Structures are given as structure tokens and as C-alpha cells.
């Protein structure tokens, strides 16, 4: 009994001591995303001991989450960013699998001392923000007006439909007479890239703005800046 008490007491002291000397880990980890562009950001509070402000390095790692569950051995963490003083790491070019679940981790180092790792889970399919259409053009066809919409694009300029097959567009348009009167708003949704408004009024301005949407994970982009057509 007495021996057991002694061991516990020693461990307790040891933990307090190392905790006191430790560098604070980064906190507030967040992933800023747009389509397939992913940037991990974090905050870090300068510890009281490390006087030289700015003299801090951060290291970012990432790994597929299922690798951490493997009982065999410690996983091979991949390097995201090494020894940067920035409080962010752009992981866009790491070819993350869109349907994968990843764990990101980041630690601070000052003067050869490392902090603990701070971690953040991220699943692009579920969490990455969807961008607005990459382009909206208006093309008059007689009394009709074609709205020609280009899909939001990934960081390799491929359509985001490759990841979200059921992506669709929410289209808003406003009518306004040439004298500035009679503002009317309309709204419609479509999966198509060309949507035709028929029987347009003469001497009327049409203003069009489009949003991308994907309902499964309730994703909706910002609306594109209004595109104007004067009939
Ligand atoms: C990702 O987006 C950020 C913010 O818009 C940008 O600065 C960065 O260059 C983008 N990364 C790539 C690889 O395009
Ligand atoms: C960095 O380490 C050196 C040598 O151990 C020490 O003299 C110096 O005070 C340390 N600087 C800071 C900012 O902790
Ligand atoms: C940051 O990393 C560089 C390169 O490894 C190293 O020379 C420098 O001493 C590091 N700075 C700190 C504050 O640890
Ligand atoms: C994507 O397209 C834009 C505009 O056409 C171009 O500036 C950029 O270099 C392209 N990026 C890639 C990765 O192909
Ligand atoms: C879906 O997103 C919309 C707008 O962003 C929000 O108002 C709504 O509450 C969300 N619904 C769910 C089920 O998350």
C-alpha cells in the first residue's frame, strides 16, 4: 500500500512539472474551404516563457482517419506544411480524396521545444463549401433569353458535378421597365446549364443571379453578382 501511494505521488509531481514547462498547442483549428480548396487555419497564444514573438514554427500533418484505427503500428502522418510561421496551411494540392475522412494535426515549436498536437477532423464531401457557378452568361434568342451557367470548378478546373452529381442551380431574376418602374422578382431551380426564359417583355431590363446547391449535405453557395440584360 505504502509503495503504491509513493509511485502515484511521484507521477503526479512529474505531470505537473512537464505541463508547466510545455508550450501551448495551437487552438481554434478551422478549415476554410471552397470546392476542393482546403486551408487549415489556427490560433496560437504566445506562452509566457517564450519572449521572442514571431520566432515560432508550426508543423501540419494529415492522415486518412481509418489509418488511426489500425492496431498494427503508428500511422504514417503525411506532411502538410513544415516549419512555417504562418497560422495556416494550404492542403489543396495534397490530392485529398473527396469522400475521405481526414485528421489534420498541427503543433507549435519554439527554440527546439514542441507543443502537443492539436487535431481537427475534416471530410470534404460533408463539410467543404460549394462555390457559386464559375460563370453566368445571357444570350438573347428572339423573345427568349438563354441563361448559360458554367458549373463551379474544382482546384484542377473540373466540374464539381464530379463530386456532387445532384448539384443544381437556384436562379433569381428581376424585371424592370426601362423607366425604372415595376420591379418584379422571380425564382426557379434547374439542374440544366442552359435555362431559357421565354416571352420576355420588350423595353425591360433583366437581372440574373445564380446560386449552386447540393441538398444532401445542405450546401448552398453565394449568389453570383447580377448579370444584366436590356431587351
Ligand atoms: C486556395 O484558396 C486560397 C484562398 O482563396 C488561395 O489563397 C490559395 O491560393 C488557394 N490554393 C490553391 C492551391 O489554389
Ligand atoms: C533558446 O534556447 C537557448 C539555449 O537553450 C537559450 O539560451 C535561450 O534563452 C532560448 N530562447 C528562448 C526564447 O527560449
Ligand atoms: C524554425 O525552423 C527553422 C528551420 O528548421 C529553424 O532554423 C528555426 O530555428 C526554427 N525556429 C524556431 C523558433 O523554432
Ligand atoms: C484554371 O483556369 C484558370 C482560368 O482559365 C487558369 O488561370 C488556371 O491556371 C487553371 N488552373 C488549372 C489548375 O488548370
Ligand atoms: C440548410 O441551410 C439553410 C441555409 O443555409 C438553413 O437555413 C437551414 O436551416 C439548413 N437546414 C438544415 C437541415 O441544416
UniProtKB/TrEMBL annotation:
InterPro entries: FN3_dom, FN3_sf, Ig-like_fold, Interferon/interleukin_rcp_dom, Type-II_Cytokine-TF_Rcpt. Residues 1-21 form the signal peptide. Keywords: Signal. Gene3D superfamilies: Immunoglobulins. SMART domains: FN3 (SM00060). It holds the Pfam family Tissue_fac. Residues 132-231 form the Fibronectin type-III domain. GO terms for molecular function: interferon receptor activity. One of its GO terms (cellular component) is plasma membrane. This is Fibronectin type-III domain-containing protein. It comes from Champsocephalus esox.
